[in-house]
Amino acid sequence: MTSTNLSEPGATESDRIEAWYRFVPREGWLPYDAEGLWATRLSEDTARVENVPFLQDGVAEGEVVRFVTDADGLRRAKERVEASGNRTVRVLPVPSGPPGRSARAAHERLSPFGLGGEVFGEGFPLVAVNVPAEADLGGIKELLVRGQEDGWGHFEVGCATDAWRSAWSGRRDRLR
């Protein structure tokens, strides 16, 4: 990686760590049992997550997590100690849909909302999107549901908030 996103005031490259999450792989999904998230160290055992998770549920960009360093020097995330108010949404383009296998095309559909995100890889066009606290939650949810119905992309919510769950109550049962 050539660029660094160190958002903490006074943070340096040496404050950047990778916080690792372990989980049970989901059947029919990617075969991984761990995911490393870039984070900025805040103290001896806490860090602020600096990217959007592709696999780990229950964490979003900007959250402060507690970690322990194991015997191999890996920093294993243990718990969230401060929520960011952000949400994590993942979009997987439908190969036969309008954007085809294009992660860029899927992300461009979300561009009116100014959402940042990352692409898993060229071979697997999963888009992990950070939905900030101040975003138009109802509009985003409506677009995602419409996209799923129109066949351009499937989505899942990896980290939700109460505000996300209560936004756009018109189809609440389908949006959790």
Cα-atom radius of gyration: 17 Å
Taking the sheet with the most strands, its summary is: 5 strands, mixed, barrel
* SS strand fraction: 25-35%
- SSE pattern, N- to C-terminal: EEEEEEHEEHEH
* Spatial gap, N to C terminus: 34 Å
Q: What portion of residues is helical?
A: 10-25%
Mean pLDDT across residues: 87
How would you sum up this structure, described in words?
By secondary structure, the chain is an alpha+beta fold. A hairpin with a 4-residue loop joins strand 2 (34-41) and strand 3 (46-49). A 5-stranded mixed barrel has the order 1-2-3-4-5. The chain has helices spanning 103-110, 137-150, 162-166, and strands at 16-22, 34-41, 46-49, 64-69, 75-82, 87-93, 116-121, 124-131, 153-159. It is built from 3 helices and 9 strands, in the order E-E-E-E-E-E-H-E-E-H-E-H.
Task: Furnish the topology, listing elements before pairings.
Layout: E1 16-22, E2 34-41, E3 46-49, E4 64-69, E5 75-82, E6 87-93, H1 103-110, E7 116-121, E8 124-131, H2 137-150, E9 153-159, H3 162-166
Parallel strand pairs: 1-5
Antiparallel strand pairs: 1-2, 2-3, 3-4, 4-5, 6-8, 6-9, 7-8
In brief, what are we looking at here?
With 176 residues, the chain is of the alpha+beta class. It has helices at 103-110, 137-150, 162-166; strands at 16-22, 34-41, 46-49, 64-69, 75-82, 87-93, 116-121, 124-131, 153-159. Helices cover 15% and strands 35% of the residues.
